[in-house]
């Protein structure tokens, strides 16, 4: 892009709001300069979103700005980190000021909510895509990893599962539920997921392992099982399903979306028996429900899914992850 | 991409080589976990490269892997930082194993040379592009910024200028010099620039401001002038021009490329009179020449370019940056 275009874009992203004391130099030099406080560990995650693959072509830029950051923040939530700094590399096919305003306003609103400061990035011309680099801080030694679960630990999830997949299906098929409130609720769960930052922080020292549910419960729990070398038994009757999903879709559809639907951005975590009481204290004030859905097993026991007390199996991808272990 | 393709790609980038003690967790969890040593400040820079815009469509993947990282490292050099960790977000139109091997081998060779560890990233399907996030460390308070120059400080550059632009011109126009050694030398300067990491570190505490020359000397020095609120006088007769460039191109072409040609990835820096002796000690062992090309002036004096003792002006973009101040 020519120089003037860059300066135009920079206007939308160079905002004073949310300036943090640990940022010695933000945008405007060859590098940003950051001071990590003593006894804090830095957590970094990178996400790329490409039009037509990670988001629908007709998505509103305000929804895109929100969701790109929310998905990136969700990785910090899964580690129990406190969000701090963002880098944004944005590739745009052309300059559209309305688009830039809506996208950046929404992005900055969520950044401000979590105290995140934009510290740098890059703007280039090309097919619409973006790469976000989120940086968070965790008291040293207290990060939630995927690898700490042990047989006997209880498996939990925050919130409800499957709503985002339902919302996506409504958008993709241009369908509407006959109840507009339910319709909007499910679409909002897809477009505006709330990263479980506070819940992740509350789980430090209590959960033995954690992950965020971006690819579907079974696929993501599979990562915990692999990293922790465990099996698991899940009680499908315990899966937390929203009233909205229950009211409008078959039980089979609910369970399928809950197990395999992606982009819920809830946390899946494991808790040793000894910590269950403390867990109730820690999460009861977080404003989000949490549900025990199963228990970790020895790796040799593999994975079992129980429904109405009966063993069921699934041929879907997430289950294949399990079965392939 | 389907799961198997991701695992294929991961094989090329998940290498044990170069594991650093400050990396608590690299690739394989929701976030990487890094421990910044005490009294060190973190420096972060992000670069996006899009095919057809930042690199030629027929570039060899080994050259691309090298240059993408070299350009990113050059931003650390400009701050005087020690390279530490890299994130790589790679978007590929399809899986080509030969391409992946050549690209990643070359990338890892340069990472190993500078002790950099790959700590995460993302791989997606789409038009070829990549975003690199480089992280370096600097003793707190010793970073080289653009904003520290004062009138009277001397202006220096490392190495020689204009070679990269000459190499690009040869590649773009499919021309060859009649001397194959010169031909290869200029193309190599374009495809394989050496980031001036050691020189940047040697300048800590000596240079009052620094920047790397990615957009051309005049454009990049312009950033120092703006950030430091200064003017400058440059002696064009002092510009360091390689013997190769002198042997094959007109004096006008040499000066034009030296002033306006991009991607030299040399450092431009300013040094107060009192530090000039120490500078000679610090840089004399660095293996790269350095040249005084002018002096900082008060902002009110603007920018003057002198050639054969005469005032000259330039209508090119870099100079417009100056003139517009």
TrEMBL record, chains A, B:
Every PurM-like N-terminal domain range: 28-137
Binding site for Mg(2+) 4: 30, 45, 75
Positions contributing to ATP binding: 121-122, 146, 214
Binding site for substrate: 54, 263, 319
EC number from the UniProt entry: 2.7.4.16
Reaction(s) this enzyme catalyzes, per UniProt: thiamine phosphate + ATP = thiamine diphosphate + ADP
Pathway: Cofactor biosynthesis; thiamine diphosphate biosynthesis; thiamine diphosphate from thiamine phosphate: step 1/1
UniProt key word Magnesium: yes
Lineage top rank: taxon: Bacteria
Residues annotated as binding Mg(2+) 2: 47, 75
Residues given in the record as Mg(2+) 1 binding sites: 46-47, 122
GO molecular function: ATP binding; magnesium ion binding; thiamine-phosphate kinase activity
GO terms classed as biological process: thiamine biosynthetic process; thiamine diphosphate biosynthetic process
Binding of Mg(2+) 5, residues: 215
Record has NAD as a keyword: no
Family per similarity comment: Belongs to the thiamine-monophosphate kinase family.
Anything else known: Reaction mechanism of ThiL seems to utilize a direct, inline transfer of the gamma-phosphate of ATP to TMP rather than a phosphorylated enzyme intermediate.
Name listed for the protein in its UniProt record: Thiamine-monophosphate kinase
Phylogenetic placement of the source organism: Bacteria, Pseudomonadati, Pseudomonadota, Gammaproteobacteria, Enterobacterales
Underlying gene: thiL
């Amino acid at each position: 892009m020519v120089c003037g275009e860059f300066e135009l874009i920079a206007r939308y992203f160079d905002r004073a709001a949310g300036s943090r004391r640990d940022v010695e130099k933000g945008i405007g030099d060859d590098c940003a300069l950051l001071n990590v406080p003593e006894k804090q560990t830095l957590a970094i995650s990178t996400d790329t979103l490409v039009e037509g693959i990670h988001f629908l072509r007709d998505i509103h830029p305000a929804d895109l700005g929100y969701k790109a950051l929310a998905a990136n923040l969700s990785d910090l939530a899964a580690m129990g980190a406190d969000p701090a700094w963002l880098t944004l590399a944005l590739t745009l096919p052309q300059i559209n000021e309305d688009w830039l305003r809506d996208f950046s306003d929404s992005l900055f609103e969520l950044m401000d909510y979590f105290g995140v400061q934009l510290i740098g990035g890059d703007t280039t011309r090309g097919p619409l895509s973006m790469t976000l680099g989120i940086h968070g801080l965790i008291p040293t030694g207290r990060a939630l990893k995927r690898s700490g679960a042990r047989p006997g630990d209880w498996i939990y999830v925050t919130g409800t599962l499957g709503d985002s997949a339902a919302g996506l299906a409504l958008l993709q098929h241009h369908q509407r539920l006959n109840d507009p409130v339910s319709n909007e609720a499910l679409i909002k769960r897809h477009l505006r997921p709330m990263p479980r930052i506070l819940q992740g922080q509350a789980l430090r020292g209590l959960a033995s392992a954690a992950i965020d549910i971006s690819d579907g419960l079974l696929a993501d729990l599979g990562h915990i099982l692999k990293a922790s070398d465990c099996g698991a038994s899940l009680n499908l009757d315990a899966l937390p399903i929203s009233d909205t999903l229950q009211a409008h879709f078959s039980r089979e559809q609910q369970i399928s979306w809950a197990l395999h639907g992606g982009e819920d951005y809830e946390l899946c975590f494991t808790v040793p028996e000894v910590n269950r009481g403390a867990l109730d204290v820690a999460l009861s004030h977080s404003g989000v429900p949490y549900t025990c859905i199963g228990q970790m097993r020895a790796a040799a026991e593999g994975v079992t899914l129980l429904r109405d007390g009966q063993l069921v199996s699934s041929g879907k991808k997430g289950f294949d992850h399990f079965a392939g272990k």
